[in-house]
Design brief:
With about 350 residues, the protein is of the alpha+beta class. The chain has 2 domains: about 160 residues, Elastase, domain 1, CATH 3.10.170; about 160 residues, Neutral Protease, domain 2, CATH 1.10.390.10. Helix content is about 45%, strand content about 10%. The strands form 3 sheets. The chain has a 6-stranded mixed sheet, covered by helices on one side. Strands 7-8 form a two-stranded antiparallel sheet. Strands 9-10 form a two-stranded antiparallel sheet. β5 and β6 form a beta hairpin. α8 packs across α9. The radius of gyration is 19 Å and the shape is globular.
Length: about 350
């Protein structure tokens, strides 16, 4: 019987990349990958034990009449495992002497601003939740994750990975929290891949929002600043071209499909959630290109409102496609261009609606 994690710790490095490092890396890199796997597994178990099933289902997602303001806390982990660490900067404090702390403070503020201004969402839970972040987690730790309560960033090993403080990664991980507080998606098979896809989609939108880029101008990459120059690749994932984000001697080749014809059935990574997320990722990219302009103005509204309305933790890709088409109809009308293009985007990735 498959064990389903409803409240996993969401890590940005996918398991298939860690497996590649263990197979192709040197002794130090193999040990690094094994440590990351062990910590992720331990954290997932702790998260599952601490959180009730389907926590926060139905939490109101919209900011109330009072002004919604961010509440950020950034901690220094001191290269240790314990969380959150020592508080360095909280909301309203002057800048820290640490450039990294200030960067995290500013970038988490960008995520807060994006959700508030474009979707009227007051922080991660919709109720003004404090956004907690820890930097300098363990020594040369090559990962970043959301553990259900806070963000955690490693500094990278300096050989394969640079610092994990990257706006697309921050947006990705905090969006896992938004999904969690919007009813949740079971972290297994297609619903788990949708969970990962939503995090990718909103992560790249947040970068585009910060840069004021149109859908046509954007790179559509997750983790674009993560790799060192020694790595052959552009980023962890590409929504524009799933499967082509990287091709490296140590990290392997990006395995993401862009079409259901290449869907990967897997017994690992909760049914390939980090791999098959490429399919709904590409559907969103196509829709944003068809609709033009800024991705968050129409395509993003469809995806966000569909997430709030889904209420199906085990949704398949087909379920999600149906919900997005229904949402496009509700937002823009039956027979609208937006509704027609939503259907077309899904058809082009092999999911007829």
């Amino acid at each position: 019987m498959t064990h389903i994690h409803r409240h996993p710790v969401h890590c940005i490095l996918p398991p298939h990349m860690l497996e590649a490092i263990k197979m192709r890396g040197d002794a130090k890199q193999r040990r690094m990958a094994e440590r990351i796997e062990k910590e992720a597994d331990a954290a997932r178990k702790a998260r599952a034990a601490a959180a009730p099933e389907r926590a926060h289902l139905g939490t109101p997602a919209f900011a109330g009449p009072a002004p919604a303001l961010p509440n950020r806390e950034v901690y220094n982990g001191g290269y240790k495992r314990e969380l959150p660490g020592r508080l360095v900067r909280k909301e309203g404090d002057p800048p820290s002497r640490s450039k990294l702390v200030n960067t995290v403070y500013d970038l988490t503020g960008k995520v807060f601003e994006f959700y508030l201004k474009e979707f009227k969402r007051n922080s991660i839970d919709g109720q003004g939740m404090t956004i907690i972040s820890t930097v300098h987690h363990r020594r040369k730790y090559s990962n970043a994750f959301w553990n259900g309560r806070q963000m955690v960033f490693g500094d990278g090993d300096g050989v394969l990975f640079k610092s994990f403080v990257d706006l697309s990664i921050i947006g990705h991980e905090l969006t896992h929290g938004v999904v969690q507080f919007s009813g949740g998606l079971t972290y297994q098979d297609q619903s788990g891949a949708l969970n990962e896809s939503l995090a990718d989609v909103f992560g790249v939108m947040i970068v585009q929002y910060a840069k004021k880029q149109t859908a046509a101008e954007a790179s559509w990459l997750v983790g674009e600043e993560l790799f060192t120059p020694e790595v052959e690749g552009d980023a962890l994932r590409s929504l524009r071209a799933p499967g082509l984000a990287y091709d490296d001697d140590i990290l392997g080749k990006d395995p993401q499909p862009y079409h259901m014809s290449f869907y990967v059935s897997s017994c690992t990574d909760y049914g390939g959630v980090h791999i098959n997320s490429g399919i709904p990722n590409h559907a969103f990219y196509l829709l944003a290109q068809y609709l033009g302009g800024y991705s968050w103005e129409k395509a993003g509204q469809i995806w966000y409102q569909a997430m709030q309305s889904l209420r199906n933790p085990k949704a398949t890709f087909a379920d999600w496609a149906d919900m997005t088409v229904q949402t496009a109809w509700q937002l823009f009308g039956a027979g609208s261009f937006e509704m027609a293009m939503t259907r077309r985007a899904w058809k082009l990735v092999g999911i007829p609606v």
